Amino acid sequence: MPPSPRVKYSLRCIDCGADYAPKDVLYLCSKCKGLLDVVLKYDEVDVEKLHLKPFNTDLQVWKYRELLPIEDYTQVISLGEGGTKLYRCLRIGNVIGLGKLYVKNEGGNPTGSFKDRGMTVGVTRALELGAKATACASTGNTSASLAAYSAKAGLNCIVLIPSGKIAIGKLAQAVAHGAKVIAIKGDFDHALKLIRDLCEKHSIYLLNSINPYRLEGQKTLAYEVFEQLGCRIPDVMVVPVGNAGNISAIWKGFKELKLLGVTDKLPRMIGVQAAGAAPIASMMAKGMKQLEPVEKPETIATAIRIGYPVNWKKAVRAVNESKGAVTVVTDEEIVEAQKAAARLEGLFIEAASAASIAGLKRALQEGIVDKDEVVVCVATGHGLKDPGIIERLYEKPIEVEASLERVLNLIGRVESGQL
Hints:
Helix content is 37%, strand content 15%. By secondary structure, the protein is an alpha/beta fold. It has a domain at 86-112 and 214-393: Rossmann fold, CATH 3.40.50. A 6-stranded mixed β-sheet has the order 4-5-13-10-11-12, with helices on both faces. The protein has a 4-stranded parallel β-sheet with strand order 8-7-6-9, sandwiched between helices. Strand 10, helix 8 (245-259) and strand 11 form a beta-alpha-beta unit. The radius of gyration is 21 Å and the shape is globular.
């Protein structure tokens, strides 16, 4: 990939506004401990170099390198991430009463989730900063992605996971890619605190979504949706919310398109949390200014089973600025939506992904979304990430003797509704 003229940028605290130079290895503001954001000098961006065009199919994260904070594009660590399909979902739309429904299937990324968008930028930045090792806490997808990109970069990778709370499809990936996986007797929030302490004391590069460079990669989803819809902005984006980095990253991507004069419209952002892990939804419903953590979060959607989302301030800002909402769905609604995606549209998505479809159905019922609006649901990961849900909650294979008569008899009983 050829070098590109660099657009200047800095790190800025979203609370106190303090600015920091890119050379500083920081995850939080050193003055007030606020979250940091990458701020580009947008007047230096050459929009023509983005090559935005209607219904573009030649998409990938690094297509948008003019808007990514990397110094040397010849050293990019990439597995070909981005360019995931945007599916028009007519059959689900007909069931829930929405005419223009699309699903952005992030399960098409190299390790099967949206995390790859962030990791290609984050791990590349780790190399630029001279890191020798990377680390993260994870409910699954982050560990799989970081392990793969660290392997590609030749970096050691350390992963902390909550013991017994991670789907085997995700854990297997982290192990296969050679990460040092440590299971702790606690939840994700405990794991994140430990890994942050570890990285501060031992100069290991932290790549959870508290790292602002990771979210820079994830914002490219917005650019792709814009091109895939014919250089149009959807009315509504629906995003599952766990640690809350993705919804804020996608919102930032859309805002940048407006700042650059590419569009004068922005979507409403709707976040979806599971009933057993919904601190942001609870906070906003009560009109509170501070988040009250969920002490023991529980949901079948393991990827969003997080009681204290570190990016909650960014997520709340995205929802409020966009005049959106955060809705809550039950595990039963999530499984119903997962089945609908698989059986009506041929899309096998993990439970956390299906939360976006379940949340859209709820938002339609509550009048938050209008039936005539253009809506994009983000499906964050592939269904094979968590096959245990299928084994536990779906129909079991029917076993019969190996005879044509028995098979035909069984088919007849199925067709008549007896089975």
